[in-house]
Amino acid sequence: MDITQLLQDLQLESIGKGITLFFLFFFLLTVFVIFSSLRSLNRVIYIKQSASSLLIQGIAIVYVFLAISLFILALAIL
Amino acid sequence: MGILSTFTVEPEGVTFENQEEGESIILVLRRDFITNVPWITTTLFLLIVPLLVPLLFSFSDFFFFVSLPDTYLTVFLGLYYLIVLGYAFLNFVSWFYNVGIVTNLRVIDVDIHNFMSKNVAATSIDGIVDVEYSQAGFLQNTFDFGNILMQTEGIKANFEFLSVPRPATVADIISDLISEGKHKK
User: What residue segments make up the domains of chain B, in order of their start?
Assistant: First the structure.
């Protein structure tokens, strides 16, 4: 393979990786900012019985962990 | 009060911001669950889209997804499903926290437009002049939900509970509270 072609391919791959990782990081940041405001919603109305407010917070935490895991996975495999 | 409750009379274990001493909750309302059907349908459709894409493109010359490296495909699929689940979760939370509360002292309307902005409006029971409800269309009449409009005194904004279940009962409960307030005076 021509060395110029190889360099071009490498550059394109790096750009692709960079864009994907930046997008994932931006997504992670958005998730974190949005979900951190859940605490203030729980103050507005808190439903103690059946622990529904806690359940929603739990789901949000699991979601944030999934987003972090995806970012780490992308860092590792890309 | 359960996680999917839309109409709860005198719920136990529910508190809200700025609840006064001696103030007891009489009614907690959410939009009727049937109003969630559009976003639930959209979510289910979006969940099966990645399964359909290879099938659809197998009949055409467009092999973009097939030609992507497996590593990218894994990351994109993971991100896609996270976005879809996030969309569903945001919609659910928006429904969950959009509540109307009727207490023995006042009526409170909590509106969450998205996670970042909320609007909490309250008016005293004495300040409500008139309560009316409306049900229009096939869905509202079949599933018994509708809008409650409460007119307040003077220049204060009117109150609305939209798409709440059993609007006739809700209007009746609020009317009774207004009458009780007037008798006490």
Answer: 7-31+100-184, 38-93
The token pair that represents B89 in the structure block = 């979760």
- The model's pTM: 0.83
pLDDT digits (tens, 9 = 90+) for B43-89: 999 999 988 887 777 766 665 555 677 788 888 899 999 999 999 99
Q: pLDDT tens digits, residue range B138-153?
A: 999 999 999 999 988 8
Whether complex ipTM tops 0.95: no
Best mutation target among A22, A29, A45 (most B Cβ atoms within 10 Å) is A45
A49 vs B115: CB contact, 8 Å cut-off? no
| Cα R_g (chain B), whole angstroms | 22
Cβ neighbours of B64 in A, within 8 Å: none
CATH 3.30.460.10 fits B7-31+100-184, yes or no: no
What residue of A is the nearest CA neighbor of B84? A63
Minimal Cβ distance to A49: which of B12, B99, B120: B12
